[in-house]
Amino acid sequence: MNITFRQIRYFIAVAEARSVSAGSTAVGISQSAVTDAIRTLEMETGVKLFYRHPKGVTLTREGHKFLRHARSIINAVADLADGVGHDQVTATGTVKIGVTPVVTGYFLSDILSRFRRMFPQVTVQLVEDKRDYIEHLLVNGELDLGILIVSNLVQKAAIDFEVLLRSDCRAWMAPWHPLSEVDALSLADLENEPVVTLSLDEMDGLVESIWSKFDHPPHVSYRTSSMEGVRSLVGTGAGITILPQLVYRPWSLDGDRIIAKRPREDLPTVDIGIAWRRLTHHSEPAMLFMETVHEQRR
Description:
The chain is α/β, with parallel strands linked by helices. The chain folds into three domains: 5-82, Winged helix-like DNA-binding domain superfamily/Winged helix DNA-binding domain (Arc Repressor Mutant, subunit A), CATH 1.10.10; 88-163 and 275-297, Periplasmic binding protein-like II (D-Maltodextrin-Binding Protein, domain 2); 169-268, 3-Layer(aba) Sandwich (D-Maltodextrin-Binding Protein, domain 2). Helix content is 40%, strand content 22%. The chain starts with a helix and ends with a helix. Residues 3-60 form the HTH lysR-type domain.
């Protein structure tokens, strides 16, 4: 197998932009060169990495797997460049970090993997719980840091935070749903649709806040705390949902396809950030973890 670093960079750019033209602009290379690189990757791996459609591209199941490995390669190369600037031998201690379930499943792993590679002698203690309890632990000084949905923070007078990722929300539906063919989808089109809500990390509150513009609450057909449950229900036509792009995948575990459409109205974003108690003097492990988070964002 003959895969180059350049091809990996182009693949990541297209995957993140969901468009070959936008991806080529991001890396400053012609669209034809990027297209050739993607075609070569698919030939070398023997799998289809993207679904092509008139509005751009979306990753296949194999494409998502390849993206994860591709990012690991990019991160490993970045570690070679800037990781040696830290004293990996003498960095010791413990950093206690609170996280919420969506952060654990969709945001944390790459950061944690990079930190452990760079600082193998620093122990990371994770506490996963609901947002309000993570806030409580931060304010009480029982955690060094928290990574959570900061757009929902309540105790902002006692907690400082920095937004790391701002994820737009989309309407999810089965590809054969009548609204899947609507080009300029509006919230009014969704008003009376059965809705599948996710009762995880306060995501059900997101749907309720969006429906507050109507004179009735959403018609909730199913409520579940399982992300895969939402995908299965939406993919088989039990209802639509509105969730951030961060957690979108174009299939369920059973292989049912799901599409995500952007309504023409502005929707609330889901902001994931790193938080700490105000006026805290950070320990060295906590400072190193924050530096790693900042490097990961570059």
